[in-house]
């Protein structure tokens, strides 16, 4: 299971109405079935390439109201900068970065127009390679760092609309997309990425939904990611999830 389906399942388990967007109709059908088997929620599927703005806009307008927009799609080709072709680098920039702009551009007017004006979220799937530039990930890291710039700037513009940006920073996660990437990965990348042990998509899904619900701007997945959020804080909005445990510690200290 990919990270996107894991997030959708976690949201479905909490009663959300789900819309899924990807290219493969076959995969979308399977994903819908697996959600509907487990949960009694409404699931709609939309086949579109995020690089095609018009197709994305049509899908989003059909999907109806959006409280939480999860911008999870992404591709990764891991290779040294000198050997990686410019065409492959451009594909990552087009899908990961421009694709995210397309999705948000199409969804934002609808999100701003939502009736209840309660809190809404836009969550962007970054990576630990979007926290630290990582060997073999030059173009990929650039796209994931790019999402941070987008999130920080857009947060300032949509705060008045009660829309909250989040960035998720998973380490290597076992997914269908990761399998081929693992096979072709440079040895050094294997060593570096194995310092942050792998996660299951389900775990990342749970952490993502929990982070979105708590309104966290930065959503690390494990202790090392949490340390990197602090180390790379910059001027990101500091409703950082690292501080959330305090809320727990305080009542415990007071014996509640
Ligand atoms: N797995 C990992 O180790 C990590 C992954 N990430 C990030 O998490 C996200 C999900 O990764 P993961 O679950 O591993 O990936 P998968 O390859 O398993 O799934 C990616 C999903 O994105 C969709 N997608 C890809 N390209 C497009 C496109 N052009 N238009 C529309 N949809 C598209 C795919 O559907 P379809 O092909 O049918 O379009 C698929 O559903 C990515 O952004 C990735 O960078 C971050 C850290 C670690
Ligand atoms: C206290 C500080 C601790 C520092 C630890 C540094 C570890 C850096 C690990 C970077 C790993 C990047 C994996 C990204 C995988 C990914 O995004 C996938 N799409 C790849 O295929």
What key phrases describe this protein's structure?
Rossmann fold, alpha/beta, 10 helices, four-stranded parallel β-sheet, binds NADPH dihydro-nicotinamide-adenine-dinucleotide phosphate, 256 residues, binds 3-Dehydrosphinganine, disordered C terminus
Q: What would you say about this model in short?
A:
The chain is an alpha/beta fold and 256 residues long.
Q: How would you characterize this protein structure?
A:
With 256 residues, this protein is an alpha/beta fold. The chain has one domain (3-253): NAD(P)-binding Rossmann-like Domain (Rossmann fold), CATH 3.40.50.720. Helices cover 51% and strands 13% of the residues. The protein has a four-stranded parallel beta sheet. Helix 5 (138-158) links the parallel strand 4 and strand 5. The chain is globular. The termini are far apart. Mean pLDDT is 93; it is low at 240-256. 3-Dehydrosphinganine (VSD) binds next to helix 6, helix 7 and helix 9.
User: Spans with pLDDT under 50 lasting ≥5 residues?
Assistant: 240-256
Fraction in helix:
40-55%
Beta fraction of the residues? 5-15%
Output mean pLDDT.
Answer: 93
Distance between the termini: 39 Å
Q: Give me the number of helical elements.
A: 10
* CATH architecture title: 3-Layer(aba) Sandwich
CATH homologous superfamily, by name?
NAD(P)-binding Rossmann-like Domain
Taken from the alpha-carbon principal axes, the silhouette is: globular
Q: Indicate the CATH class.
A: Alpha Beta
Major sheet characteristics: 4 strands, parallel
Give, in order, the helices and strands: HEHEHEHEHEEHHEHEHH
Which ions, cofactors or small ligands are bound in this entry? NADPH dihydro-nicotinamide-adenine-dinucleotide phosphate, 3-Dehydrosphinganine
* Domains (count): 1
Say how many strands there are: 8
Q: What is the fold named in CATH at topology level? A: Rossmann fold
| Oligomerization state | single chain
Radius of gyration: 18 Å
Pfam family, one: adh_short
Keywords: Endoplasmic reticulum, Lipid metabolism, NADP, Nucleotide-binding, Oxidoreductase, Sphingolipid metabolism
GO molecular function: 3-dehydrosphinganine reductase activity; nucleotide binding
Protein name: 3-dehydrosphinganine reductase
